[in-house]
Amino acid sequence: MELLFNLTLNGLATGMLIFLLAAGLTLIFGLMDVLNFAHGGLFAWGAYSGIWIYSTTGSFLIGIIGAILTGFILGIITEKWIIQPVYGNHVQQILITLGLMLVLSEMLKVIWGPNQLTANTPEYLSGSWEIGNIIIIKYRVFIIVVGLLVFAGVQFLLKKTKIGLVVRAGVMNKEMVQALGINIKKVFMFVFMIGSGMAALGGVLFGPYSGVIHAGMGMEFAILAFIVVVIGGMGNFKGSVMAAILVGLSGSFMAYYVPELSLAVNMLLMAVVLIVKPQGLFGGKG
Questions:
Q1: What total number of domains does the chain contain?
Q2: What is the mean pLDDT of residues 40-65?
Q3: Residue 136 lies in a domain
Q4: Is-above-0.90 flag for pTM?
């Protein structure tokens, strides 16, 4: 029972970290029809900037805020100077964002060096609670709570606010929205900024979770994020959280029971989903 609970908790925490990255991809693709393969680079930059600020100031909260602001800034720069010239052309988007991904990874090495950096868990989030024979690690619970709050917040933003209404209207008919006097470019930049901030948040939370961060982590998690987006359904925000949890749980249980398949299980899971339901578990037809 204790083992089952711990594996589940670990899988949920991993799933929420992947969700924060995949949700940004889902937003950007679902609302803007942009394939951003540099999204993992924003995840890595969030980790490095946030952990550096945390280690400098001694405040994990300030580190989180700094990581999110880094994501916002990089998101604005990426959308304005990299994405805008290739709107509507998926092939060019893939090529240019893959190039940006490599640049972002190499810049991390230039600024912080090629070696791994240690990321310590804040004292107030370290340790665990013990309930009977069950041990609950505090930091994993923290990650799960943050992931759920982000999901609820983005859902509220899109469904219940004026900016969310404008975003959804701009996706359906951007010419009509522009005719009403709304600058659709600024709206899309806002969406890209939010998606990038979520990726950076996932990065800084991943640091204490793993204990170390490295420049190649962006590419590793970007692959997982795209698997989640495909499984959940391209552009389906609710699908991304369900798929991320599924991927996190499958990885956690496989790593314990069948370690040889732990790296391949997510690819196998995606292949099965595509065979059974090509549009993804929660994706619409077409």
A1: 1
A2: 97
A3: yes
A4: yes
